[in-house]
Amino acid sequence: MVKLSQSLAHTLLQKCRIVDHQKKRLQKGQILKAGYIEVLIFEAISQGLTPLFQTEHFAIFDKPSGLLVHPTVRSTAYTLLDEIRYAFGEEAHFGTPNRCRDIRD
After folding, report:
1. What's the burial of 83, exposed, middle or buried (CB within 10 Å: 0-12/13-18/19+)?
2. What is the pLDDT of residues 74-91, one digit of tens each?
3. What residues does each domain of the chain span?
4. Which end of the chain has the smaller Cβ count within 10 Å, N or C?
């Protein structure tokens, strides 16, 4: 059994980072009677892409052709989001945060 603080669990639920054994995101207050949960941890990976220009509040990247902007499934290995979060931290994003959706391989 993993013990999470209430604030961390709330944050993970808000960011759709807790899924059940069927890869469906859990909702606040949901009770599981069987199965298990997964906590999805995003670990940014850099391949050396750096911003062309940056200020305190934004950055401009020259995205290579074919590079996804953000993952479409959990198995997506590398995206522009990796470079952004590698350079600027876990809370960095593309303006409006993505809406939660079920993430399936």
Report:
1. buried
2. 778 899 989 998 988 877
3. 1-41, 43-96
4. N
- Exposure string over 46-56, b if 16+ CB within 10 A, otherwise e: eeebeeeeeee
Q: Describe the chain by its helix, strand, coil percentages, rounded to 5.
A: 15, 10, 70
Strands 18-20 and 59-60, how do they pair?
unpaired
For residue 18, give the 3-state DSSP assignment.
strand
SS3 9: helix
Residues with Cβ within 8 Å of 82's Cβ and at least 6 positions away in sequence, in order, are: 44, 45, 46, 47
- Report CA Rg, the chain: 16
Question: In this structure, what token pair is assigned to residue 50?
Answer: 């750096």
Q: What is the pTM of this model?
A: 0.61
